[in-house]
């Protein structure tokens, strides 16, 4: 395996890690505020469909992106309604949202486009183009650093750069702002936040909406950048891999980025090589597919470090009377 | 304080939730430009008016009874087993191995063997998440989700690399020997003059599912173990003081749950496909969640809810066949049922509670 091949695998790893990272950070906001969200998958899926569908109809990927975010936020609000206002079971609500998304996307896609649950292919302004960073061509021939800059850093989609920027932003919001402090507090001890005279309901809704926006970006990325259009069930379990990454990263933004990159590498390698042969031993592609999940179970088992979720996660908050 | 009479809790709330889900589904059908009433009539005709339709409805219901019971029994211990899908996938492997490699003389003995295998393999797949929950506190929902994906990858590997007959293209095992083929309803109930259940996949496993309902009822309400599971689910601390071993209860409840989910693979693998195929579970593990919620975790409720979903599945297939409404309509209905009976329970309950409180004040 030469240097250029490694760069190409890394390049596709970054592309594949981006939706995971956005969804993972989405989950981070929600779960840090004490609202468990296993509906990341569903929110990504509606965003993927509506971004592609509206981008196709309007001819503008930006309008599509907004539509994708709006649809994802709508589902997030349903989750908020069920788990915050009506104090329902957050896990069950998440399951319902995943099914709702899986069903509605195909129903609407079939009604609008009649192509068996997909959108027409996006072209031109209906799709995100990759961004060539300045000097990429000129620096291309510089040894080692040139190809890294040209192949890996330049030439990604805009949303990839945005996703990378969201990581420090999330860190800053969580650990350096008053809102972030309160958000973390509401996930650990909502009663204390309530006692301080701050609305638990409002904070949790904010977290859930931020989660919806980020899932919207992740879904739109899938359908308008990574691929040109929506196909049925195109998220293919990415929402659950993001959930796994969130646990693996112990609900922290920087580790979330590294974990998603790692899972991205696994996906890229599985995509490129199918079965990997090391000497006489063959690693089957299915093992690579299952590896993120296996790693997460290992982490959950506490064999390597211990994953401690936010204390109030999954518990609806009932105000004392 | 109990504000609702028992009958309202078990009958009225599920019915109102179902009505709301149905109403919203009708709106969805209207929104995609179809007539909801015509669609409903078509579903009823296709699934309940002909014996062949019933043959499909009962076939689907068989799957949902098993997965619904699986989710329900875990719910009794306040555990959310979202891994029925994975447990059924792995159990399918168990059924296939037993059918392919043991020379059974008669289907009835093969059925016993397959039941044991399906139960064991399903329970095995539930064991690791259960053990991790009991011993290390790893959240059972997350681990069972992960195990669903791991199970899918495992089955894919086994089918493609090990069980697939040489030369065959599609990832499936070879056909099971004839002696293991279960009698279908068509073979059991048709006479020369009146053919019934023609071509439908419903088979003898349905009766196994009915038996499972009775056994689960006995287990939950008539045995010491069932009492332990229920008390643990009501209050872990109280159960602990009463001398109920929490770790043991978690593991046992999950083993039973996994075994029940596994049993559905007898119906799909041995009863219908008569070989092991890649996607035999087809989301039935998740429908178990809707069925258990709808059926209020009671075996009889699960049976009714499973029949309802069997009807929806067969009706949905008919719709996809005769109209422009895709099969995914059923997924939407399923989502709405889960939403209303599970997560938005309080939305229905709160107004109802104030209504009953008002009536009570009016009476006194």
TrEMBL record, chain A:
Protein's cellular compartments: Cell membrane
Question: Which membrane topology term applies here?
Answer: Multi-pass membrane protein
| UniProt keyword list | Cell membrane, Membrane, Transmembrane, Transmembrane helix
Transmembrane portions of the chain: 12-30, 65-84, 91-113, 148-174, 205-224, 256-273, 293-312
Q: What is its main location?
A: membrane
Please name the InterPro entries in this protein's record: ABC_transp_permease
The superkingdom listed in its UniProt entry is Bacteria
Stored CDD domains: TM_PBP1_transp_TpRbsC_like
Alphabetized PANTHER family for the sequence: GUANOSINE ABC TRANSPORTER PERMEASE PROTEIN NUPQ, SUGAR ABC TRANSPORTER INTEGRAL MEMBRANE PROTEIN-RELATED
Name assigned to this protein = ABC transporter permease
UniProtKB/TrEMBL annotation, chain B:
Q: A Pfam family matched by this chain, by name?
A: BPD_transp_2
Look up keyword Transit peptide and say if it applies.
no
Record field: transmembrane: 12-33, 53-75, 87-104, 110-128, 140-160, 204-221, 250-270, 302-323, 329-348
Q: Which InterPro entries match?
A: ABC_transp_permease
Kindly list the places in or outside the cell where this protein is found, as annotated in its UniProt entry.
Cell membrane
Q: CDD domains this protein is in? A: TM_PBP1_transp_TpRbsC_like
- Keyword match Transmembrane helix: yes
> How does this chain sit within the bilayer?
Multi-pass membrane protein
Source species, domain of life: Bacteria
Keywords, A to Z, come to: Cell membrane, Membrane, Transmembrane, Transmembrane helix
The name of this protein is ABC transporter permease
Show the taxonomic lineage.
Bacteria, Pseudomonadati, Pseudomonadota, Alphaproteobacteria, Rhodobacterales
């Amino acid at each position: 395996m030469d240097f250029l091949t490694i760069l190409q695998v890394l390049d596709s790893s970054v592309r594949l890690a981006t939706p995971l990272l956005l969804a993972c950070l989405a989950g981070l906001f929600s779960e840090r505020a004490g609202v468990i969200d296993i509906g990341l998958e569903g929110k990504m899926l509606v965003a993927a469909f509506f971004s592609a569908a509206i981008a196709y109809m309007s001819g503008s990927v930006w309008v599509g992106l907004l539509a994708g975010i709006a649809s994802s936020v709508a589902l997030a609000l349903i989750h908020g309604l069920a788990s915050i206002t009506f104090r329902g079971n957050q896990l069950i609500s998440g399951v319902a949202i995943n099914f709702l998304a899986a069903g509605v996307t195909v129903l609407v896609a079939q009604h609008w486009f009649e192509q068996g649950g997909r959108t027409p292919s996006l072209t031109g302004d209906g799709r995100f183009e990759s961004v060539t960073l300045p000097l990429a061509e000129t620096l291309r021939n510089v040894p080692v650093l040139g190809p890294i800059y040209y192949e890996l850093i330049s030439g990604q989609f805009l949303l990839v750069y945005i996703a990378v920027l969201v990581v420090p932003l999330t860190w800053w919001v969580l650990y350096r702002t008053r809102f972030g402090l309160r958000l973390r507090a509401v996930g650990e001890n909502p009663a204390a936040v309530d006692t301080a005279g701050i609305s638990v309901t409002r904070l949790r809704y904010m977290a859930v909406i931020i989660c919806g926006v980020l899932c919207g970006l992740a879904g739109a990325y899938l359908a308008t950048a990574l691929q040109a259009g929506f196909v049925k069930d195109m998220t293919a379990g990415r929402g659950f891999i993001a959930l796994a990454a969130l646990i693996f990263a112990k609900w922290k933004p920087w580790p979330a980025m590294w974990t998603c990159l790692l899972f991205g590498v696994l996906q890229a390698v599985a995509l490129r090589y199918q079965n990997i042969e090391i000497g006489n031993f063959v690693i089957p592609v299915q093992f690579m597919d299952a590896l993120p999940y296996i790693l997460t179970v290992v982490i959950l088992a506490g064999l390597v470090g211990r994953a401690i979720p936010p204390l109030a996660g999954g518990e609806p908050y009932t105000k004392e009377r | 304080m109990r504000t609702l009479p028992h009958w309202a809790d078990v009958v009225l709330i599920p019915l109102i939730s179902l009505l709301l889900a149905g109403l919203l589904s009708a709106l969805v059908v209207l929104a995609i430009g179809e007539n909801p009433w015509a669609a409903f009539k078509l579903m009823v005709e296709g699934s309940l008016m002909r014996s062949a339709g019933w043959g499909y409805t009962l076939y689907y219901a068989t799957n949902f009874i098993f997965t619904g019971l699986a989710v329900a029994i875990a719910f009794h211990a306040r555990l959310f087993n979202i891994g029925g899908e994975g447990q059924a996938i792995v159990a399918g492997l168990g059924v296939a191995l037993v059918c392919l490699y043991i020379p059974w003389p008669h289907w009835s003995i093969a059925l016993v063997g397959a039941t044991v295998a399906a139960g064991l393999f399903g329970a095995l797949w539930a064991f690791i998440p259960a053990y991790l929950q009991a011993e290390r506190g790893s959240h059972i929902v997350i681990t069972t989700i992960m195990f669903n994906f791991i199970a899918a990858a495992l089955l894919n590997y086994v089918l493609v690399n090990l069980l697939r007959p040489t030369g065959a293209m599609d990832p499936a095992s070879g056909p099971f020997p004839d002696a293991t083929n279960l009698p279908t309803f068509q073979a059991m109930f048709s006479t020369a003059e009146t053919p019934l259940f023609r071509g439908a996949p419903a088979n003898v496993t349905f009766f196994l599912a009915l038996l499972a309902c009775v056994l689960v009822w006995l287990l939950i309400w008539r045995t010491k173990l069932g009492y332990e599971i229920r008390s643990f689910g009501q209050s872990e601390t109280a159960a602990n003081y009463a001398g109920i071993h929490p770790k043991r209860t978690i593991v046992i409840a999950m083993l039973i749950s996994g075994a029940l989910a596994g049993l559905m693979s007898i119906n799909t693998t041995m009863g219908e496909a008569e070989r092991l195929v890649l996607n035999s579970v087809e989301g039935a593990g998740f429908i178990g969640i809707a069925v258990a919620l709808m059926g209020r975790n009671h075996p009889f409720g699960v049976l009714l809810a499973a029949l309802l979903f069997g009807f929806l599945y067969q009706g949905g297939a008919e719709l996809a066949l005769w109209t422009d409404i895709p099969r995914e309509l059923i997924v939407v209905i399923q989502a709405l049922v889960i939403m209303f009976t599970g997560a938005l329970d309080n939305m229905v309950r709160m107004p109802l509670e104030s209504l009953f409180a008002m009536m009570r004040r009016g009476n006194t």
